[in-house]
Write a structure and sequence with these properties.
The protein has 453 residues and is α/β, with parallel strands linked by helices. The protein contains 19 helices and 17 strands.
């Protein structure tokens, strides 16, 4: 048995505080392997207790979970870049303990060697940690020689995913601050959107957990911690094969009383699916719309049309399910003409929340990086450690931002840049609202009660 002190380094609350699920999953696996574990959340606990807890626990290994590199908002510049804070954390830990420091998580997996060198950690673990982290701990505490970069192991099957080890104190914090916890039902993404890092992080095919296991764990969250809302963090909840409906049906059958939201691809969903999901507890949707015209959708290889997006948006309205669209402007193929077309398309969405982003963050190993090199926006030697954004060479960036701002002006449900929306959400949080809050921004007409004779 080894003592492992695990830290979630995330401290951002935008757009709302998010439970450190990755840390919880890996810690669950460490405990199952017989190790003694303590979890520390820098957001929930602050930094004041860190040294005291490390001194008391005397760890043999320290793990850091790295969730995000930056906030992908081009308006923020380096203010939205998180790794400098994490490097400060590593330096603090060096002064508190001589235990080896291991970093992992989705942000690390995007560019492991560069991030590990920048942070100055002893080891960097690529990919899933349920099996590889306990093995690494065994090697380190046994004094065996271990490489700095721990290569990715073969992908786990859905049945092998670790169960999260939730900390009651953290559950209480996130329930009060954001009104929900996050939960994962599957990993991987078969789509090939040119900007996205999910296939690199989790693989190109879905690996799904058993619906009965998922509902068992959700029921335990409700019974043991009083959780009544969750957000499913899958890259895309509605897989094209329709397997997600097995989980929906299991939720209906068990009727555990948990509301849920998720991230959806705006394709292949209709009235029947929405009504079924609403019966199972769905209360809001986040949609990966991503672009606002057919040309710019094709430019990021989205493989859907805006007509499909409009059709789903209308179905959500009819089902009285609030929806939020995330749209990136300035991507491949964006011109003055496509921008005007896109703004008209967004207007046609009517009463739906739209988050607008200016430019697209370029990640290593995403097809957009290759295009940016071909177009001379970056070179093969350009470091992507700090945010670098793609903007179409065919459009003026400042003019584009002015047009979007003017088009969105005066509407609570049109948010640009993202920082504007975050300020709105902070104001609503201060008034006591929790959760996604799309249902607070989107007001459905009051339904008339039927009078029986």
């Amino acid at each position: 048995m080894s003592r492992v002190f695990f830290i979630s380094s995330n401290t951002t609350v935008d757009p709302y505080p998010v439970y450190p699920l990755g840390m919880a999953v890996v810690c669950g696996a460490l405990i199952a392997a017989g190790h003694k574990v303590r979890q520390y959340d820098c957001l929930a606990l602050g930094m004041e207790l860190l040294r005291e807890q490390i001194d008391e626990f005397a760890p043999e290994v320290i793990g850091i979970s790295l969730r995000n590199i930056d906030n992908i908002d081009s308006f923020c510049g380096e203010d939205g870049w998180y790794l400098a804070r994490t490097r400060e954390l590593v330096n603090q830990l060096r002064s508190y303990s001589s235990a080896p420091i291991v970093v992992g998580g989705p942000a690390l997996t995007i560019m492991p060697e560069i991030i590990a060198d920048y942070l100055g950690v002893d080891h960097a673990l690529i990919g899933e940690g349920e099996a590889s982290f306990p093995a690494l701990v065994e090697d380190l505490t046994a004094g065996r020689s271990v490489a700095k970069i721990i290569e990715r192991q073969a992908p786990l099957g859905g049945a092998d995913f670790g169960s999260p080890c939730y900390v009651p104190e953290f559950v209480k914090f996130y329930s009060e601050k954001s009104g929900m916890l996050n939960f994962q039902t599957k990993r991987g993404c078969p789509f090939q959107c040119s900007y996205c890092s999910y296939p690199h992080l989790e693989g190109h095919s879905y690996r799904k957990r058993d619906p009965r296991t998922i509902v068992d764990e959700l029921a335990a969250l409700k019974q043991e911690h009083g959780v009544d809302k969750v957000f499913f963090t899958d890259s895309v909840f509605n897989d094209p094969q329709g397997d997600y409906l097995e989980l929906v049906e299991e939720l209906i059958r068990r009727d555990i009383g948990i509301g849920w939201a998720a991230f959806f691809r705006p394709q292949g969903l209709g009235k029947q699916e929405l009504e079924l999901m609403k019966r199972s507890g769905l209360y809001a949707l986040e949609l990966g719309t991503d672009a606002a015209s057919d040309r710019t959708l094709a430019g990021i290889n989205k493989r859907l049309s805006f007509a499909e997006i409009l059709k789903l948006n209308e179905a959500c309205w009819e089902a009285r399910l609030p929806a939020a669209h995330y749209i990136m402007f300035g991507g491949p193929g964006e011109t003055a003409e496509t921008l005007e077309e896109g703004l008209q398309n967004i207007e046609a969405l009517g009463r739906a929340v739209v988050f607008g982003f200016s430019g697209i963050r370029i990640h290593p190993n995403a097809p957009l990086e290759k295009l940016a090199i071909e177009q001379g926006i970056i070179t093969p030697e350009t470091s992507l450690l700090k945010p670098v954004y793609y903007f179409s060479p065919e459009i003026d960036r400042d003019w584009m931002n002015e047009r979007i701002t003017a088009s969105f002006a005066g509407r609570m449900d049109r948010i640009f840049p993202p920082s504007v929306g975050l300020e709105k959400m902070r104001e609503m949080t201060a008034l006591g609202f929790r959760g996604l809050m799309w249902d607070r921004i989107i007001r459905f007409p009051r339904q008339r009660k039927q009078v029986t004779a």
